Amino acid sequence: MTPQPSCNKIEEKSTAASSSIEHTNSKILKMMDPVAEPISNFRSRASRRLPQYVERNYSRLYAIDASPGSAEDVCYLCHTNALFILTLAPSHPVCRLLKTIREVKFQVDDGPDRAKSGGKGYRKKGAQFLSPNDVICNITCDDSTMYVVKSGIKGKLLEVNSRLATWPQLLTTHTASNGYIAIVIPNATDIEATQSSLQNEETYCRLRAAT
User: Fold this and answer.
1) What predicted TM-score, i.e. pTM, was given to this entire model?
2) What is the CATH number of the domain that holds 74?
3) pLDDT profile of the chain (211 residues), mean per 10
4) 105 Cβ contact list (under 8 Å, min separation 6)
């Protein structure tokens, strides 16, 4: 009779897998090349090569804003371990118009405080669940314009970038590294559908060049 693995061993494997994902993500964020210069051309920024390690493990996918004349697009850096790192797309007005950011607020009106979301363990217990239209944060600029950043995908919110509360301008100066907005992980069964719902870099550049 084949011995069955104990619950303790199963839990150990689950914890190890979770720790591996968190360690990999931490390593990637530290290695991602900070972009110090402002975004002035979304096509050149979209085609910018990331550091070799990130280039190997990430793909860039975009949620394109369909509202006429808006272009409040976001970008997901999708890692091979299924983590989706949310950033502003180069075509987003905050980046494209070089806006000065006054505040990034993760408390969504009377809704949940996104800053309190945090997944623990293999099943990411305690992480807030997001639908594509759920708001992650509000960005307020010095010219009093406000932008609402929505998830764009369905999944669990593992964390938001707490640095933005103190240094909101990281959204434009270090968009793909220290200026990321949040980390989301879709359910394993939804990963392919999530990727299919977003636009790849070639399609994104083509669509935005035409507007």
Assistant:
1) 0.73
2) 2.40.50.100
3) 46 44 47 37 47 68 86 91 91 94 90 74 72 94 95 92 94 88 92 93 87 62
4) 137, 138, 139, 140
